[in-house]
Write a structure and sequence with these properties.
The protein has helices spanning about 10-20, 50-60, 75-95, 130-150, 170-175, 180-190, 215-220, 230-235, 255, and strands at about 5, 25-30, 40-45, 65, 100-110, 155-160, 160-165, 175, 195-200. It is built from nine helices and nine strands. The structure holds D-galactaro-1,5-lactone.
């Protein structure tokens, strides 16, 4: 890998992973609609995901992509459609046209957010999106499958829980991932010789995880951080949160509660 492209590099995850990627690959190409001041070993190319020609330009000469650019929470349909559906298509198509071999797709726990918290799910479960955002990421995972099977791109989907220095609350004790563990997974996607199309969960070594992350471990993932080390602060943080009787039943939390109508008992 000589040159790795990071889309959405000005966003929250982009800012956390930049210092950890610097020096790992000779050139990190950062892209976003928002201007970024590159550090040594980085270059910046602005682009709008909705503009296929611009996305082709940023994919030129790139060996691998970490695709973070997207609407990253629930929103109205229009931005989700533009940024995640059209933008996702443009990214995979531009990568294919430019001969870029590897895509690490930042997907989300909200693809499977309507699984109940009593369930432990692995990478093979059916999608159960909890939001338009979750649906758009399920679309992105399906796009990756097609580009892997039809065109031979190598795709790693990381269903990210919540990236932060520490788990923010009790729910995050199950889904938290530290920036360095996330970068370890990203590097597996860019470098592991056996990746064709894989789904892994982007979580640290969390005793309360709702995921069987065996597929990530099979690919060599060895998380360095443990949510449980922060259990008391995270549990205490819940005291400040409003009760959420619907969200508390499901892995996706508050994303499930938004716009929810009817009987929650229909969700088994
Ligand atoms: C996500 O997918 C979001 O990008 C992030 O902001 C958090 O809301 C996270 O999920 C979560 O579920 O906590």
């Amino acid at each position: 890998m000589d040159r790795v492209l990071v889309t959405g590099a000005a966003g929250g995850i982009g800012r956390m992973i930049r210092p950890l990627l610097r020096g790992v690959y000779p050139v990190i190409r950062l892209s976003d609609v928002v201007a970024i001041e590159p550090e040594p070993g980085e270059e910046f190319m602005p682009a709008d995901l909705a503009d296929l020609a611009a996305i082709e330009r940023i994919c030129a000469g790139v060996d691998g992509v970490i695709h973070l650019g997207a609407s990253s929470v629930e929103d109205r349909w229009e931005p989700i459609l533009t940024n995640n559906i059209v933008g996702g298509y443009n990214l995979f198509e531009a990568a294919r046209r430019q001969g870029c071999q590897r895509i690490v797709f930042a997907t989300t726990n909200h693809v499977v957010g309507f699984y109940r918290r009593q369930r432990t799910i692995d990478h093979t479960v059916m999608p159960r999106p909890d939001s338009r955002y979750g649906v758009s990421k399920a679309f992105g995972e399906a796009l990756g499958r097609m580009y892997a099977d039809k065109y031979g791109l190598r795709v790693l989907n990381i269903r990210i829980g919540n990236v932060a220095e520490r788990p923010a609350d009790r729910r995050r004790l199950s889904i938290w991932v530290s920036p360095r563990d996330l970068v370890q997974l990203m590097r597996i996607g860019l470098e592991h010789p056996d990746v064709h199309f894989e789904v892994v969960y982007g979580v640290s070594d969390n005793a309360r995880a709702w995921y069987d992350n065996g597929n990530a471990f099979r690919l060599g993932y060895a998380p360095a951080d443990r949510a449980e080390d922060h259990a008391s602060e995270a549990t205490e943080a819940d005291l400040a949160l409003a009760p959420d009787p619907i969200g508390e039943q499901f892995q996706g939390g508050g994303f499930c509660t938004m716009e929810f109508t009817g009987d929650v008992g229909r969700i088994k």
